[in-house]
Amino acid sequence: MAVTAGTSLLIGAWWAMRRTLRILLDNWAQATQPFGMQLDTGFVRAQFPAFAEPALRDLAFFENAGGSYACRYVVWRLSRFYKERKVQPYGPFPVSDLAGSEMDEARERLARMLGVWAEEVSFGPSTTANTYVLAQAFRQWLPEASEGRPAIIVTNQDHEANTGPWRRLADAGIEVREWRMRDDGHLDIEDLEPLLDGAQLLAFPHASNVVGEINDVARICRLAQRYGVFTCVDGVSYAPHGLPNVRKLGCDIYLFSAYKTYGPHQGIMTIRRELGMALPNQGHEFNGANLWQRFTPAGPDHAQVAACAGLPDYVDALYKHHMRAGRDGTGRAEVIHDMMRARERDLTAPLLDMIEERGLRLLGPATVDRAPTLALDLGPHAWSVAQRLAEHGVMAGAGDFYAGRALSALGIEPEEGVLRLSFTHYTSDDEVDRLIGALNRVL
Ligand SMILES: Cc1ncc(COP(=O)(O)O)c(C=O)c1O
Predict the structure, then answer these.
(1) Ligand 1 centre and the CA of 156: distance in Å?
(2) Would you say 178 and 152 are in contact if contact means Cβ atoms under 8 Å apart?
(3) DSSP character string of 284-309
(4) I want to staple 343 with a disulfide (CB 3.0 to 4.6 A). Which of 39, 109, 245, 436 is the partner?
(5) DSSP-derived secondary structure letter, 100
(6) What number is the average pLDDT over the span 13-24?
(7) Which residues' Cβ are closer than 6 Å to ligand 1?
(8) Residues 6 or more apart from 229 whose CB is under 8 A from it?
């Protein structure tokens, strides 16, 4: 009896100790939040083979919004798939089984980081293709699902991918309403509200690829939801700056492109289960019960899908390097998101100062809270300035970036375009200095 009492005392003490340890660990994990902790740029850059490539080493890369460098996990997974698993996946032999499970792993781990269910994530050849397929589903569905004439809302701030396919629904008798930017490129929520009544879908960008303002997705979605309007968010120009928690944002559809987010050339899409199952299946008829196959009529690129698991690998590696303890997929992604954004703000500040000093016209807000995608109106000189920057070892973009509607609305000829300077958390201070030096020489 005495032994039993002693044993239960010991067990009680053990559990109390475990509980205290857990609380201490949790507190420590909280305490090691990114407040004041800076991204280790040396470690970050070591995760990208491109920075060590002799052919690229002396070039400062400022066209990230067009496509980022790929992280080493993606490169390694892609190459492993091509070398060791390049067979039809999901078959009865072990290599095939491995190929399929790596594809599933990519979907499951991305879902955990994005805060959605695995079945809600699907891959397609690009965001343009994913949006196009979605628009076909809505074209079929809206007329039968709506009382009266269906209506959708698009913006003039979007890349063509998230506006053109929706606008074409007018051919099917669907009313298309436009949520227009103000003169400074801002999409004001006050202008949205009158458009919502009687609409079924709102398509808008998380951040525009030329205006760079980060739209308040959560607030916009809450408002849309009050009117029973579904939301489709183009996150292509946002996701590279930190994977969002899609569930917290509250949108029904979120799209982004892996090739601009350190990955292979894939479009990634999340769609809320209820909506995805209500929309007509666009894939093979016999796959209709699988949400992740309903909007991917193109056969998937197996290797690239599998290589997308390299994105969560990268977030995990950053997390472990900086934090070491605790948290699950979404929690890790949120911490790394905040660290990336903090780093990008620091990098943006000197560029904004220089733009102001030189009196250049920047599209969108001149604050560090914007996306680090800075488009400058240089009249007819955008292209020639980009060429001259290249002579100084700076790779920047020029053109309309498929955002002709946004440029026109801001008084810029799409044919002339803008000079776009886009970077991410992996950009170094030295590269920003080089960019500023080069701009000062060529402008
Ligand atoms: C904001 C934005 N949306 C959508 C797209 C289209 O993405 P994808 O090239 O994957 O079709 C782009 C591409 O540049 C973009 O910048």
Answers:
(1) 15
(2) no
(3) -GGGTT-GGGTT--SPP-HHHHHHTT
(4) 39
(5) H
(6) 46
(7) 126-128, 159, 161-162, 205, 209, 234, 236-237, 257, 267
(8) 153, 196, 199, 200, 201, 202
pLDDT, position 306: 98
Residues 430 and 425: their CA atoms lie apart, in Å, by: 13
Regarding the domain delimited by 76-312, which CATH topology (the fold level of the hierarchy) does it fall under? Aspartate Aminotransferase; domain 2 (3.40.640)
**12, pLDDT greater than 80:** no
Our mutation pick for probing the ligand 1 site, out of 131, 209, 405, counting the most ligand atoms within 8 A of Cβ, is 209
Using the CB atoms, write b or e for 188-198: b if 16+ within 10 Å. eeeebeebbeb
Conformational region of residue 256, where left means phi above 0, alpha means psi within -120 to 50, and beta covers everything else: beta
Backbone phi and psi for residue 183, each to the nearest 5 degrees, phi listed first = -60, -25
Give the predicted TM-score (pTM) of the model: 0.92
Query: Packing angle between helix 189-196 and helix 217-226, nearest 10 degrees?
Result: 20
Q: Taking a C-beta distance cutoff of 8 angstroms, is the pair 225, 269 a contact?
A: no
39-48 residue pLDDT tens: 999 999 999 9
Q: How far is the CA of 127 from the centre of ligand 1 (A)?
A: 6
Helix axes 310-322, 329-357, angle to 10 degrees: 80
Which atom, in ligand 1's list, is nearest to the CA of 66?
Answer: 14
Cα distance between residue 168 and residue 176, in whole Å: 9
Is the pLDDT at 13 greater than 90, yes or no? no
Could you tell me which of 381, 373, 392, 378 has the C-alpha nearest to residue 62? 373
Superfamily name with CATH number, domain 41-70+328-442? Aspartate Aminotransferase, domain 1 (3.90.1150.10)
Instruction: Tell me if 97 sits within 8 A of 432, measured CB to CB.
Output: no
Type of residue at 16: A
- Neighbour order of strands in the sheet with 373-377: 60-62, 394-399, 418-422, 373-377, 361-362
- Would strands 151-155 and 201-205 be described as parallel, antiparallel, or unpaired? parallel
The whole-angstrom distance between residue 14's C-alpha and the CA centroid of its chain comes to 45
Distance (Å, rounded) from C-alpha 292 to C-alpha 299?
12
- The overall longest dimension of the chain from CA atoms, in Å, is 92
Domain boundaries defined on the chain: 41-70+328-442, 76-312
Beta-carbon neighbour count of residue 229 at 10 Å? 22
* Pair 309, 105: CB distance under 8 Å: yes
Atom of ligand 1 minimally distant from the CA of 208: 1
Q: Average of pLDDT values for 428-438?
A: 98
pLDDT single digits (tens) 320-360: 999 976 778 899 999 999 999 999 999 999 999 999 999 99
